[in-house]
C-alpha cells in the first residue's frame, strides 16, 4: 500500500512525494497522493470496441477496475518485457483506475518549486505533460493523468450542462481568483463559471502567481476588501500547490478573511484533512462543478 506515504507529509509545506516510473527509456512521475498501491500485472479481460488506451478490466478485491495502457496514451512503444511490468492503482476524480507502466523505480520527496512548466516550444496544447522535474541529472516528466482519462471519456470532465441544471442565474460582478495549471481546465472553468453568472474571473497558472497578485492587492488595504471576493484553487500546480497557497492566504494579516475553495481531483475522505489543516473554507472534488457553484453562492453572499 502507498497512501500512508502521502498522508505523512505535513500539509501546506509546498512539498510532495512522487512515484517515479518508466515507459521504455522515458521517466515519468505521479503524485503519491493519487497512488493506492503498486501490483505485478494480473489477468486483464479485454473489452470489445473499447478506447485504444484501454487494455480492459481487472478485478481487485471485489472491485472491477479499468486498466489504462500508459505507453499507448503517450504514443510510445509497448513493453518488450511485459512479465516485469507494473500496475499502478490510482484514485482521483472520485474513481479508481489502474495504469499499466513498464517499471516503477522509487519515491522522491521534492518541492513544487522544482517542477518547471513545460515550454510551449516543445509542448502542444494536447500534451499530457504538466511539469518537468530535474532529478540527479535526469529529467522526469510529471503527467496529467486527469487529461488522459478525459481523452478516454470526455463526459468525465467539467460540463456546462451541470450548471445549466441549476436554472437561470443572475449575473455577478464579484471577482473570483482561480489558480489552475491546466489550460484545458482553465477554459472549462471559464465557460462553466461564466454560464453560472460569474463574469469577473482572474486566472493564474499556479499558486505562486496567484499569491503574488493577492499580496500586491493587499498592499493597498483601503481598496482590498472589495477587490476580490473568493479564491478557487487546484492542489497540483508547479511552483506552488493549492495547499500552500491556501495556507499563505489564511496566515496573511489582510488576506486571511478571503474564502478559499479547493477544487481538485485529490479530494477524498483520506486526504480531506490536508485542506482542513491549512484552513480551506470548502473542498470539492473535480468534476463536481454544480457543487462548486453552489458553494461559491454560499461563501460570497
Rg calc: 20 Å
Instruction: Assign a percent range to the helix content.
Output: 25-40%
How many beta strands in the DSSP annotation?
Answer: 16
Low-confidence region ranges: 1-7
Total count of helical runs of at least 4 residues: 9
CATH domain topology of the largest domain: OB fold (Dihydrolipoamide Acetyltransferase, E2P)
Q: Kindly report the name of the CATH homologous superfamily of the largest domain.
A: CheA-289, Domain 4
Percentage of residues in strands: 25-35%
CATH architectural name of the largest domain: Beta Barrel
Principal-axes geometry comes out as globular
Question: What kind of sheet is the major sheet?
Answer: 6 strands, mixed
CATH class of the largest domain: Mainly Beta
Note the run of SSEs as H and E.
Answer: HEEEEEHEEEEEEHHEHEHEHEHEH
Number of domains: 2
The largest sheet has its strands arranged as 8-1-2-11-10-9
Distance between the termini: 43 Å
Mean pLDDT: 89
- SS-based class: alpha/beta
Question: What keyword list fits this structure?
Answer:
301 residues; OB fold (Dihydrolipoamide Acetyltransferase, E2P); Rossmann fold; 2 domains; six-stranded mixed sheet; 25% helix; disordered N terminus
Structure commentary:
The chain has 301 residues and is α/β, with parallel strands linked by helices. The protein folds into two domains: 3-152, OB fold (Dihydrolipoamide Acetyltransferase, E2P); 157-299, Response regulator (Rossmann fold, 3-Layer(aba) Sandwich). 25% of the residues lie in helices and 31% in strands. The chain has nine helices and 16 strands. The strands form three sheets. A six-stranded mixed sheet has the order 8-1-2-11-10-9, with no helix packed on it. It has a five-stranded mixed sheet with strand order 3-6-7-5-4. Strand 15, helix 8 (272-277) and strand 16 (282-285) form a beta-alpha-beta unit. Helix 6 packs parallel to helix 7. The chain is globular and about 65 Å long. Residues 1-7 have low confidence and may be disordered.
Amino acid at each position: 500500500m502507498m497512501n500512508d506515504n502521502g498522508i505523512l507529509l505535513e500539509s501546506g509545506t509546498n512539498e510532495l512525494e512522487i512515484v517515479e516510473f518508466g515507459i521504455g527509456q522515458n521517466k515519468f512521475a505521479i503524485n503519491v497522493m493519487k497512488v493506492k498501491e503498486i501490483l505485478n500485472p494480473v489477468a486483464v479481460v479485454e473489452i470489445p470496441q473499447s478506447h485504444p488506451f484501454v487494455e480492459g478490466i481487472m478485478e481487485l478485491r471485489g472491485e472491477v477496475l479499468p486498466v489504462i495502457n500508459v505507453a499507448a496514451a503517450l504514443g510510445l512503444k509497448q513493453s518488450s518485457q511485459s512479465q516485469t511490468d507494473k500496475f499502478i492503482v490510482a484514485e482521483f476524480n472520485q474513481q479508481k483506475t489502474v495504469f499499466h507502466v513498464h517499471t516503477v523505480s522509487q519515491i522522491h520527496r521534492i518541492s513544487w518549486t522544482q517542477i518547471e512548466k513545460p515550454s510551449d516550444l516543445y509542448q502542444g496544447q494536447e500534451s499530457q505533460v504538466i511539469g518537468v522535474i530535474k532529478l540527479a541529472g535526469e529529467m522526469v516528466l510529471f503527467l496529467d493523468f486527469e487529461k488522459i482519462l478525459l481523452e478516454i471519456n470526455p463526459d468525465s470532465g467539467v460540463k456546462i450542462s451541470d450548471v445549466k441544471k441549476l436554472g437561470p442565474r443572475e449575473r455577478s460582478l464579484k471577482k473570483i481568483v482561480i489558480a489552475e495549471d491546466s489550460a484545458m481546465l482553465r477554459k472549462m472553468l471559464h465557460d462553466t463559471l461564466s454560464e453560472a453568472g460569474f463574469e469577473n474571473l482572474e486566472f493564474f497558472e499556479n499558486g505562486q502567481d496567484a499569491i503574488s497578485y493577492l499580496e500586491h492587492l493587499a498592499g493597498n488595504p483601503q481598496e482590498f476588501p472589495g477587490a476580490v471576493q473568493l479564491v478557487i484553487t487546484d492542489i497540483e500546480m508547479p511552483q506552488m500547490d493549492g495547499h500552500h497557497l491556501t495556507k499563505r492566504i489564511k496566515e496573511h494579516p489582510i488576506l486571511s478573511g478571503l474564502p478559499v475553495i479547493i477544487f481538485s481531483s485529490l479530494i477524498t475522505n483520506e486526504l480531506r484533512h490536508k485542506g482542513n489543516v491549512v484552513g480551506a473554507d470548502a473542498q470539492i472534488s473535480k468534476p463536481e462543478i454544480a457543487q462548486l457553484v453552489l458553494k461559491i453562492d454560499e461563501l460570497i453572499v
